[in-house]
Design a protein that fits this description.
- By secondary structure, this protein is mainly α.
- Helix content is 63%, strand content 2%.
- The strands form 2 sheets. The chain has a two-stranded antiparallel ribbon.
- β1 (159-162) and β2 form a beta hairpin.
- It is globular, with a radius of gyration of 24 Å.
């Protein structure tokens, strides 16, 4: 820090740099960089979707500006403010816990509809298939599937055949919870139920992050509730939803610990330990946010940094809560993968699965240039798929961070929640845009809080009446308010449901799964896959690592 510079000035400069960086990443077509040194499956997907996302972002930006000017000219200056005042009073009149439970029911219901009506209660990606298969063995009282005489007929991607048994490459946290659902005969309820828990706690967290802006807090929680990105993956057996639910438990407990109840750090530790056993990298990145960042910069000033005694109590509680889950995970790794610190990802795909800039398990280079391209594509995709609203949301957030005179502590924490996973994923070679950038899933509530704060700032920063000079009779505040409101209405009532429904299988488009034939008794169904899949299964059954299998098949 420069001598004489205030900490607030340094923070203001830092968040303005983040805003400028966001604009720099989403406006030019940086996604094309992913193919600068060769292409692969991930690069091909990013090039195809990145083009559509970028066109959508620029189109929505132009239409948004046109909409602001048109509606600002047509609408009476006080009409949007009057309507918002009524909505605000109605939202704030509901007690917090009732409000949170209502949102939880909406989110769970939307995920249940997506699971049943769109996905036929089937996993949406092979990631979910692997964890569901492992869950069935756990539900039967087995730690893993057995080694079979002819594993080439059973083996598929993301399952690992070890000397100790046949398991998913993913840590066992989500599979264990799916096993509990399987025992109840309703594994399909697990994801939607977890989303309801996450949304309920998101409402409670929002209330603590924005104590002086309750309308922003509740609108942020509403946005998280209706996010198609959250709903879809919760319905599709993806472990992201458990990681999000555990993160909200950890964050809520951390906020309670800041208020003086250090014993809440036990809950924080337990939630983060379970999150480590579900999505380890997300647990590391967002666990740092939920503890160190929250404890050193709480939503309300505490009169300085925590004392040494407070830190000691919180860290002790954190370690005690996380300990049993971490120990169980290490024992699981040692039993199946030969080393407590060796995860199934590495056992399946080799050391190239790790973090950093290197050649990835697909044989494609991942360096700084690719990191810029994929990160840009993630952000542009998030702008669209977060809410399916025809508004360039990441641009709105970037302008807020860049131009706002000050950010409250709640908005600052929301920015940390939103941005840290973006930074963390830049150092991870795997990116996926299927139904949005799902590796940013756990950051969605932070983005929703930032969107609500950005929208409130955008409206407050503009003049109340009409401009009499450059823009003639245009009421900018009315125009911006109307565009935001219409965009959300379109997203919630049309665009979001249409996007979710687009994944339903039809006779013309088989969809994401193959329907099993009707049988009158338990039966095994063998599916004739492609020659590439059959060769891959045979090579894997012979002990070849997944990265070597992929490289062999590519050649």
């Amino acid at each position: 820090m420069l001598q004489g510079a205030a900490p607030g000035c340094s923070w203001r400069l830092a968040r303005r740099l983040v805003g400028a960086l966001l604009l720099t990443l989403v406006l030019p077509p940086w996604y094309r960089l992913v193919a600068s040194r060769g292409s692969g499956a991930a690069a091909e997907q990013t090039l195809r979707l990145g083009s559509a996302y970028t066109l959508e972002l620029w189109t929505s930006s132009v239409l948004g500006i046109a909409g602001v000017l048109l509606l600002g000219w047509l609408l009476p200056p006080g009409l949007p403010a009057s309507l918002w005042s009524r909505v605000r009073q109605r939202i704030l009149s509901v007690r917090l816990h009732v409000f949170g439970l209502g949102l939880a029911l909406v989110a769970t219901g939307a995920a249940l509809w997506t699971s049943g009506a769109v996905l036929d209660r089937m996993p949406v990606l092979i990631d979910g298939v692997g964890q569901l298969v492992h869950a069935r063995y756990l539900a039967a009282g087995m730690l893993s599937g057995p080694r079979r005489a002819h594993p080439e007929f059973w083996q598929f991607q993301f399952m690992v055949l070890t000397d100790a048994g046949w398991v998913s490459q993913y840590p066992p946290g989500f599979s264990a919870l799916l096993a509990a659902g399987w025992h109840l005969g309703a594994a399909w309820l697990v994801g939607p139920g977890l989303l309801g828990v996450a949304v309920y706690l998101t409402a409670l967290i929002a209330d603590r992050l924005f104590p002086s802006e309750p309308a922003v807090a509740r609108m942020g929680a509403v946005l998280a509730t209706v996010s198609p990105l959250l709903i879809f993956h919760a319905a599709g057996y993806m472990n992201h939803v458990l990681a999000l639910a555990l993160l909200t438990v950890a964050l809520y407990a951390s906020l309670r610990a800041v208020e003086g109840g250090w014993a809440w750090s036990l809950v924080t530790g337990a939630a983060l330990g379970a999150m480590l056993a579900t999505r380890p990298y997300a647990a590391g990145v967002l666990g740092f946010f939920a503890t160190f960042v929250v404890w050193t910069r709480p939503p309300q000033p505490q009169g300085g940094l925590p004392s040494a005694r407070a830190w000691a109590l919180r860290l002790a509680g954190l370690a005690a809560g996380a300990g049993p889950f971490v120990l169980a995970l290490l024992l699981f790794n040692a039993h199946f993968f030969g080393d407590a610190m060796r995860f199934g990802y590495v056992a399946a795909a080799g050391p190239a699965h790790g973090l950093g800039f290197h050649v990835d398990p697909w044989g494609s280079p991942y360096g700084f240039v690719e990191a810029v391209g994929y990160t840009s594509a993630d952000l542009v995709g998030l702008s669209s798929d977060l809410l399916q609203a025809p508004i360039p949301w990441v641009v709105v957030v970037a302008l807020y961070l860049l131009l706002a005179q000050r950010l409250g502590r709640g908005a600052s924490l929301a920015a940390g929640w939103a941005m840290l996973p973006v930074l963390g994923n830049a150092f991870y070679w795997h990116h996926d845009l299927f139904m949005g950038p799902r590796l940013l899933y756990e950051a969605v509530p932070g983005w929703c809080f930032l969107l609500a704060a950005s929208a409130a700032w955008s409206v407050r920063a503009l003049p109340q009446g009409r401009s009499g000079r450059v823009l003639g009779r245009v009421g900018l505040r009315s125009g911006v308010s109307a565009v935001f409101a219409l965009g959300l209405v379109v997203a919630v009532l049309y665009a979001g449901p249409q996007k979710l429904a687009s994944y339903k299988a039809t006779p013309e488009r088989p969809g994401l799964s193959v329907l099993a034939p009707a049988v009158d008794r338990p039966a095994l169904v063998f599916v004739h896959g492609s020659w590439e899949e059959r060769l891959g299964s045979r090579l894997s059954a012979l002990g070849m690592r997944l990265d070597s299998v992929r490289l062999a098949l590519r050649h």
